[in-house]
Amino acid sequence: MPTPDHQRDLLRSTRKTTHHSTDWRCTRCDKLLGANRDGRMHLRFARGHEYLVSFPVTATCRGCGTLNQASAPAQR
Ligand SMILES: [Zn+2]
Fold this sequence. Notes:
The protein is of the alpha+beta class and 76 residues long. Helix content is 17%, strand content 36%. The protein has one helix at residues 4-16, and strands at residues 23-25, 32-37, 40-44, 50-54, 57-60, 67-70. The structure holds zinc ion (ZN).
């Protein structure tokens, strides 16, 4: 059975931890690539495009073009 209240709690807790050790940054230029959320990676691109992807994650830095990979949620 769906539980909307639980989903709301989940949303609130992820927003609270957004600025806390969940950042995924480029290994070369330290640009923010995405954020770690509940075992998945939240990627944000220009013009409002957002993606929620599961690990392992590969993304190209839009600053320097380096291909970054995160293989596990625990990685910083
Ligand atoms: Zn970079």
